[in-house]
Structure formats: structure tokens, C-alpha cells
Amino acid sequence: MFRRTASTSARALPGFGLTLGYTVLYLSLIVLLPLSALLLRAGGLGWDQFWETVTHPRVVASYRLTFGTSLAAATINAVFGLVVAWTLVRLRFPGRRLLDALIDLPFAMPTAVSGIALAAVYSPHGWLGQVLEPLGVKVVYTPIGIMLALTLIGLPFVVRTLQPAIADLERETEEAAASLGASRWQTHRRVIFPSILPALMTGFALALARAIGEYGSVIFVSSNLPMKTEIASLLIVSKLDQYDVGGATAIAVMMLFISFGMLLVINGLQRLASRRYREAL
Q1: CB 70 within 8 A of CB 210
Q2: How many CB atoms lie within 10 A of CB 184?
Q3: H-run or E-run covering 165
Q4: pLDDT tens-digit series, residues 259-280
Q5: N or C terminus of the chain with fewer C-beta within 10 Å?
Q6: What is the pTM of this model?
């Protein structure tokens, strides 16, 4: 009788060595090699010049604005994206398929179009802006406008990540909790939410990563003022326009380190939530 071993299972995929080599080569050319070149270029500046560049008050202000608005937008998307995903999966109503299709619109729409559309609506002479402006509420050309743009482009990541997790929920588990006397709030808090928490954190991480690197839509809804509404991506482009490649590289490397650290923390929390959920089953 044929006995399945580790070596035979490793070769279950035809051309395993070839596909593995292609995968490593592809990732190296697309990810590892460019990042290595970025780090080497920043290393050529010297520690003193690098530190002086990344700690300049203008640069620090751009970091604060970029990561602050990105965290706020990702948090908003995590809350309302959960509501949208739950509505699309669990409820049946006229126009549901159209609404579901609209969720993907920020994926297909160029980011410049998103920025122009937001500016047309929320600018002082826009549809809503001309109503909000007399009330003292200014959206575009402020951090609020930046956060709004980042929320728009990040929503699909949360919704599309949560929809399969919500669809996989077994209604029998909810009915069993209700039969044991659990209220609707207790069922959501102790049964439903723990099971979809890993997917929610994944969507949050994707929306956060997308927001940190956004450029096209933001420049249309922010006044791009240094120390006020200038994001890090715009500052990098400004450095390149001034032929300061070393300064742009230093800022990019610092953003890379901060983003990587944030994603590591989120992934650690996601694994912790998954392990606790499995232990609770």
C-alpha cells in the first residue's frame, strides 16, 4: 500500500521546486530588491544627516498628520465597514446588489478622481460645502478633508474582508445562544464579534496600510501647507522635485519602519485574538 510521507506531500504540486523558485525570484524582484536599494541609498547619507532629515519639524509634522489621519480613517472604516458588511450579508432589500457593487468603486476609480469628487462636494462652493461653510465647518483644505479622502479609499478593504467571515457564521450558534437566555447584545458581544474579530483586524490593517501610502486623492482636498496639511507622501514628492533624492529616501525609509512596526503590532493582536477564539471553542 502506498504510504503518504512528508516528501511525497511536499511534491504533491507538480514542479514544486520550479514554482517555489519562481515565487522567491518574483518576490525578490518586486519587493526585496527595491526595499534593499532604498535602505542602501538611505545608508549612504550617514547617520547624522539621516537623523537630521527625519527629525526636521516639517517632516515630523507630516508624519503626525499622515499616521494620525490614517489611524482615524481606518478606525472609522472598521466601525462603519462592519455595519455595511453585516447589512449586505444578512439583510435582503431592493438595490442590495447595486449597493454591493458600489463598494468596489474606490478600487476601480483613480485616486485623482476621488479627490476631485470630494472637492466638488465639500469645497466652500460645493454642494455640501456651501451649506457647512456658514456654520463654521470647513472640510476640504483641513485634516478633516484628508481623513475623509482616506476613509473613502479604505472602506472596500474592510467590507470585502468582513463579508466572507460574516457569511461563514453559523446561525445555529446564534440560536443556541438565544435559547440559553443570551440577549441580542450578549450574542453579538460573546459569540459573533469574537469570531469575526480576526477578519476585522485584517481589514483594519489593509485600510491603514492603504491610507498611509495614499497621495492622489489627498492633494486635491488639502491645501498642502507645510506643518499643517502636508502629508509625508507629498513631502517626498517635493524633495524629489528639488532633486533632494537623499532626503526623500530618508523620509521614505522612516515611513517604512513606522508602517512595518504598526503592521507587526496589528498582526500580533490578530494572532492573539484568533488564539483566544480557538481556545474558547
Answers
A1: no
A2: 11
A3: helix 143-167
A4: 888 888 888 887 887 777 666 6
A5: N
A6: 0.84
